[in-house]
Amino acid sequence: MSEAAWSAPSDELLGPDLEVLATAAPLEVRDVPAPAEAGGASGRPSGAAAGPPGARVDGRTWRLAWRAALGGGAGGARVLVAPGRALVVAGDRWALFDPEGAVVAELGTSPGDDVALDLARGQFLHVDGLGFVVARDLADGQSAWRVLPAGGRAFRAALLARLDGRVALAGPQRRVAGAHDPAPPVTLAQVELHAVDAAPAVDVDRVVEGPTCRARALRRAPETLFARCGEVLALASRDRVLLLDLADLRPRRALAAPGPFVPLALAADEAGRLLLVVEAAGLEVWGLTQGGERFLRAPLPPGLGSTWSPPAAGPDGRLLLAAERALAVLAPDGRVAWGRFGSTVDGALVAACGAVLATLDGAVCALDRLGNVREVARGDEPFVGPPALDPTGRLYACSARAVYAFDPVPG
Q: What pTM did the predictor assign?
């Protein structure tokens, strides 16, 4: 690709609607050729499911290890795996299970907010019903600390991230335009950084004081999307991508295309590259480095519909796109490797071997590099939400009322 698709934004390009703690550095941006499929960057996208290192799918079969009931409805349930623990988030509840399927702890959470693992400290983060971000120990589910976002209960935590002695919170607050206001709704995208290890350790819950720094972007946009890229936080909204340093929330750089675009889905792989679904000259998939190189621009495969999960990058550089009733995998150059349409898709992940595990029509299925489908797990009732895979190869799936664990069959 030879077109000069991206421009280097000046300080003025950020506009008066962006409040940050420092100005963004100018940046020369250009399109570059797509990487070859062999040796493509591997990645586990933020906000999209991916299998852990060592977990394989090719030809493997599973058998039921245990089944445990879930309290309340489990619509949109998902499982986060940690050593010796499975954290199930379903509706307005979370439940922590041990390897034998016994409940270690369970409690309410704020539906629609992020739940994130902090494996380095053996903790997970969630938002409680009062709007506090709470850190809990994976061993027993007990609270370690909690912090109230400066935005209060109106703040929706779309992303939670732990960085050494700090925790970053990112999410939107919305103010709906008046009935006679022709302007579109305003989205207030807010990012906060709280010091959480500075407070002395105590035996009871400690409430961390206010944020050490904040960044706010007031934009007339349908939504602001967030993704963590290592030590960088990416914010994508209409016609802009802003990269913030998670150490102090200062902007590293801002990117703008010469033509308008609206981001519809955003993820980041382990190489720190951004993966976007956008509405620009039609519906497109973009790949963008933090240095501003757009290595991928491809039309979205027809038939994917209008609702997508964030793209997921495989170990060979392929991209998995999951929609409500379709799955498609793109080669690193943007060509469609395979597509499956017509099935009900409740979530998918890319395993370390490059195969795809997906919840299709209520069962967990494996899809090889050619898109061939093989059913690998089914429950007493249809599964909802994406499957999960731990490093040992144990497979987790949820129905509306239960969580299932399947162990790989040797051989």
A: 0.82
